[in-house]
Design brief:
By secondary structure, this protein is an alpha+beta fold. It has 2 helices and 4 strands, in the order βαββαβ. The protein has a single domain, classed as Alpha-Beta Plaits (2-Layer Sandwich), CATH 3.30.70. A 4-stranded antiparallel sheet has the order 2-3-1-4, with helices on one face. β2 and β3 form a beta hairpin.
């Protein structure tokens, strides 16, 4: 599946959450990640992220799609981390 993950966590946890999300998805902008991921790997990511979070003040939002072809993406302004297709 293809996901877009957005997080909003306390300042003390930002570095750890960034490092965790980079292990599973592609960083595209501050606190925003996207990429292909299996259901099992997504569940693993969410479980690890939940341990880092303060569930009373932090949040993660995950947008899911079966495939990237069902998602139109438009970038206006600077693309912070362009994804390149590698063969």
């Amino acid at each position: 599946m293809y996901v877009i993950l957005v997080y909003d966590v306390g300042e003390k946890r930002v570095g750890k959450m960034l490092k965790l999300c980079r292990q599973y998805l592609n960083w595209i902008q501050n606190s925003v990640f996207e990429g292909e991921i299996t259901a099992v790997k997504l569940k693993e990511l969410v479980k690890k992220a939940s341990r880092l979070m303060d569930l009373d003040s932090d949040s993660i939002i995950i947008f899911k799609s079966r495939d990237i072809k069902w998602l139109d993406k438009e970038i206006i302004g600077l693309e912070k981390n362009a994804l390149e297709n590698m063969l």
